[in-house]
Write a structure and sequence with these properties.
By secondary structure, this protein is an alpha+beta fold. A 4-stranded antiparallel β-sheet has the order 2-1-3-4. It contains 2 helices and 4 strands, in the order E-E-H-E-E-H.
């Protein structure tokens, strides 16, 4: 996998709220392989939700999350199954095959 793209993504729990100020939610963002990204935000603003969306444990969001331009909702079972089969963890270098 070479990139993960968020397109106008927003946790459904925040839908309809105009007071959400974020550099991530409701924006188009691409995370590219080989780069390091820092996700920093106040408590309760969706950091854990974002991680859950990326690893396929949750899909309660609006917008799109694309993995190499393939829709994450369609890939959800494939990604979670592969991670579980390999026993991948976010800190072991096998996370999402990156």
């Amino acid at each position: 996998m070479n990139k993960i793209t968020l397109r106008n993504t927003m946790p459904r729990v925040f839908a309809g709220r105009d007071d959400i100020v974020s550099d991530t939610w409701r924006h188009d963002i691409t995370l590219e392989r080989g780069h390091v990204y820092l996700i920093e935000a106040a408590s309760g603003t969706g950091k854990s939700s974002l991680c859950s969306y990326l690893i396929g444990y949750r899909d309660d969001y609006e917008g799109q999350i694309l993995f190499d331009d393939r829709d994450g909702v369609a890939l959800e079972g494939e990604i979670v199954g592969a991670a579980q089969t390999r026993g991948a963890r976010a800190d072991d270098g096998n996370f999402l095959g990156i």
